[in-house]
Amino acid sequence: MSEKEKPAKKMYYSISEVSDMLGIPASTLRYWEKELPNVCPRKSQKGTRKYSITDIEELRLVHRLVKEEGHTIDGVRRILRRRRGSETNKQEIIHRLETIRNELVGMIEELDKVTSM
C-alpha cells in the first residue's frame, strides 16, 4: 500500500481526502454511495460526508472490483450482498464455537473438582 493509500489516524475523512486516497473523483464516490447500500458515510448537519476507516476499506473493495477486476455496479452489488451473508455466517459460527468452548471449560473445571476430592 503506498503512502497515498494509507489513511492517517483520524476518525473521519472528507470526501476530498477519500477521493485523493483512492485516486478517483468525488463524483464517483457520490455515485457509489447512491448505488451501493454498503457505501454509506455519515453526514453532518450541513450534509458534509464524513468517511470512517471502515467506509474507506469498503470503498477500496468497491474500487478494486470496479476498476481492477472490471465488475459492473450490479455485479459489485451482488458480490457485496454475498459477502455480507458470509460475514453473518462467520459471526454465527464464532458465537457457536465460543459457546461450545465455554461449556467444555466448565466440564473440565467440574472434572478437576471431582478428581481432586
| Strand order of the biggest β-sheet | 1-2
Beginning-to-end CA distance, first to last residue:
59 Å
How would the global form be characterised? elongated
N-to-C series of helices and strands: HHEEHH
Kindly list the characteristics that best describe this protein.
117 residues; mainly alpha; Multidrug-efflux Transporter Regulator, Chain: A, Domain 2; two-stranded antiparallel ribbon
Brief sketch in words of this structure:
By secondary structure, this protein is mainly alpha-helical.
Structural features, described:
This protein is mainly alpha-helical and 117 residues long. The protein has one domain: Orthogonal Bundle (Multidrug-efflux Transporter Regulator, Chain: A, Domain 2), CATH 1.10.1660.10. It has four helices and two strands. The chain has helices at residues 15-22, 26-35, 53-68, 73-115; strands spanning 42-43, 49-50. The protein has a two-stranded antiparallel sheet with strand order 1-2. The radius of gyration is 21 Å and the shape is elongated. It starts with 14 loop residues before the first helix and ends with a helix. The mean pLDDT is 84.
How would the blueprint of this fold be written?
Blueprint: H1 15-22, H2 26-35, E1 42-43, E2 49-50, H3 53-68, H4 73-115
Antiparallel strand pairs: 1-2
